[in-house]
Amino acid sequence: MKVKNWIVQIYLFLMLGVFPLYFQNRYYDMGDAKYTFFKYATITMLVVMGIWLIFEKLQTVGIRDKNKSSKSVPNISIQDIAVLAYMGMALISWLISPYRENGWTGSHEWYMGLLSQLLFVGIYFVISRNYGNLRGNLWILGVSGAIVFIISYLHRFRIDPLGMYEGVAERYWLSYLGTIGNANWYSSYICVILPIMMGWYIFGESRQTIVGKKGHVLGAGFIFLGFATTVTQNSDSAYVGLALCMLFFMWFALENSNYLLRFFEVALFGLAAAKITGYLQITFPEYAMRLSTISTEITKGDTTWYVFGIVFLLYVLLRRWKNMDIAVWNYIKRYRLLVCCSILFAGMVVALTLYLPILVGEAI
After folding, report:
1. Which of 42, 82, 100, 310 has the greatest number of C-beta atoms within 10 Å?
2. What three-state secondary structure class fits 363?
3. What is d(CA 175, CA 166) in angstroms, rounded to the nearest whole number?
């Protein structure tokens, strides 16, 4: 492996494997600790990478002098231009701001100031050109993510293996979970990590793609854990994010029967996770935290059973007619926009019919 790939791989190990689990002083200093970790790990990576690139450049100077006719043309993509334009707008915004000192780091415990934006741009340009080990990174992501999911899930049943809630009043427990901290941060974490594994599970070319057959089984377990913690994390934004991801995946899953079968499997994992969670909440009410009405309806309500039955029936029928005529698939692909829009419309109608009265009742 090249030196540049090693630099990127070490950094990805820190950010994918260590960063989600890293904390100091439990939830009291969670935001500061994670930002400090991110800042110094990223700056160190960018400095080391910069030094190595300068070293490489100096090594090639003599070779280029001997062959002056060869010209080095920088490889700039449309995505690169978009990222550079974003960096330019961030710089302009900071320069014209009357609060440049605060704008450099950002609000306390959020730290989304100019420094973070510049670091994001640096990360993009380094990692987009040096991917590291894809197979290894999937394992790192899966292991660390599964640990975070398990700890967070246990927290919603008042099981605190790391003592994170020590000194925290119980009325605030719903606002924090796992080793991510704030429930809204955790919602964002789920909406980034879980779709990565969902996409790999659905669109892998075979059951042995990337991490092997056993890895595919573990991927299914990861997806199940992800949905289980989603229905207990108590932030409604995660439902919207994952629903849009599922619609996006369905668009491409309609390409062939294998993709669509795996898409249905992912949906079944999610629905099963919700109902098993509901069973645990009913069986152990003294341990289960009281969640929002929408989360409770998803885990304990009958609607989830109806959706599970429909998806399971479609899954069984597709397995039976998996090798249908190619003309049928061409017909399906031709009208998949109509299919996806119909499902989106139906989902919105069901959501409004079932959950709008709940939300109105809570507001009253």
Report:
1. 42
2. helix
3. 14
Residue found by looking up tokens 């932030």 in the block: 235
Q: Is residue 167 left, alpha or beta, with left meaning phi > 0 and alpha meaning psi from -120 to 50?
A: left
Residue 113 main-chain phi, psi, to 5 deg = -75, -170
* Cα dihedral value 323, 329, 332, 333, nearest 10: 130
Q: What distances in angstroms separate CA 92 from CA 89, 101, 150, 180, one per listed residue?
A: 5, 14, 43, 32
Residue 289: DSSP 8-state: P
Residue 254 has a CB neighbour count (10 Å cut-off) of: 19
Q: What is the DSSP letter of 107?
A: S
Instruction: For helices 237-253 and 212-230, give the axis angle rounded to 10 degrees.
Output: 140
- Determine the 3-state secondary structure of 233 from DSSP: coil
CB proximity list for 287: less than 8 A, separation 6 or greater: 157, 158, 159
Give the integer Cα–Cα distance in Å for 190 and 141: 12
Place of tokens 């002056």: 68
| Whether the Cβ atoms of residue 316 and residue 322 lie closer than 8 Å to each other | no
Cα(303)–Cα(294) distance, rounded to whole angstroms?
12
Instruction: Tell me the C-alpha distance between 307 and 302, whole Å.
Output: 9
Per-residue pLDDT for the chain (364 aa), expressed as one digit of tens each? 588 888 999 999 999 999 999 999 889 889 899 999 999 999 999 999 999 888 888 877 665 555 555 555 567 889 999 999 999 999 999 999 999 989 999 888 789 999 999 999 999 999 988 766 777 888 899 999 999 999 999 999 999 999 999 988 988 999 999 999 889 899 999 999 999 999 989 887 554 444 456 667 888 999 999 999 999 998 888 888 898 899 889 888 888 888 888 999 999 999 999 999 999 999 999 999 988 888 888 899 888 999 899 899 989 988 887 666 566 666 666 777 777 777 777 777 766 666 666 555 554 4
What amino acid occupies position 187? S
AA identity, residue 323: N
**Side-chain half-sphere of 304: how many Cα atoms within 13 Å?**
22
